[in-house]
Amino acid sequence: xxxxxxxxxxxxxxxxxxxxxxxxxxxxxxxxxxxxxxxxxxxxxxxxxxxxxxxxxxxxxxxxxxxxxxxxxxxxxxxxxxxxxxxxxxxxxxxxxxxxxxxxxxxxxxxxxxxxxxxxxxxxxxxxxxxxxxxxxxxxxxxxxxxxxxxxxxxxxxxxxxxxxxxxxxxxxxxxxxxxxxxxxxxxxxxxxxxxxxxxxxxxxxxxxxxxxxxxxxxxxxxxxxxxxxxxxxxxxxxxxxxxxxxxxxxxxxxxxxxxxxxxxxxxxxxxxxxxxxxxxxxxxxxxxxxxxxxxxxxxxxxxxxxxxxxxxxxxxxxxxxxxxxxxxxx
Length: 331
Prior knowledge:
Elements: H1 2-20, E1 36-40, H2 47-63, E2 67-71, H3 78-85, E3 93-98, H4 99-108, E4 120-129, E5 131-136, H5 144-151, E6 160-164, H6 170-182, E7 186-190, H7 194-203, E8 208-212, H8 213-221, E9 225-230, H9 245-249, E10 258-265, H10 270-285, H11 287-295, E11 298-300, H12 305-326
Parallel strand pairs: 1-2, 1-3, 6-7, 6-8
Antiparallel strand pairs: 3-10, 4-10, 4-11, 5-8, 5-9
Helix pairs in contact: 2-10, 4-12
């Protein structure tokens, strides 16, 4: 009889524990138990898509579970970010979030359908991608100093024009920051995408553009574009002879670097976020992934959630001020 009562009490205790457990708070060893999606707000073939696929392939190998990249294009990535923000917070739907969606769009759009701080749990920064200031090879602008001379107001100086893939893009903000920092007169010519913007720069219809190094370098190497400077704190190992903008025009601290982070819906269990951070950080540090990223002109990062949160906060303050001061409006 005593054994029966003891067994009954054990069953009741176990049942009570199961009833009180949070089913979303899976133990780290239980995750993942099914395919994981990384949602990208831009079309296949660009830097965000390429970086997401590099990480997805490595995680698939590590976990033995498919990690799928889903391209959900629209509204400068806002559609994809909103979808992930509203997804179930179980670690199976993640966002590849660029700096624009994290730190620029909240200031750019009056009714953004997500909040990058309140609606997301940061996992890690995957990589940064350097931006380079370029002109057509046939341009009379041979150096950054030539650009300053032609861009600053004066007799017979019409000012300069610069292209961007869209209003509020990092290319737009970088050029606006450069103009304000140097006193140049520069007119923005927005396009819908990188390809048409670069096409008109190559033809000489627009003077210059800030482009991601991964996109611009083949055109620089083939002699179609001329690089004036890198919008980074340090020179790139890919083009070590190219000075930074800070060096070329005497602007200490000038920097406009693209970066991409992995984010989860806000209520994702801490244990799942920790496992994702560990797995992605280790993947990024592996030699083959670092090599694949560097081929895309990217520098692997793999920082902690707290460090990523600090980066978002700092860049939000910086870029939102420029958006307000310059009165930038979306296309």
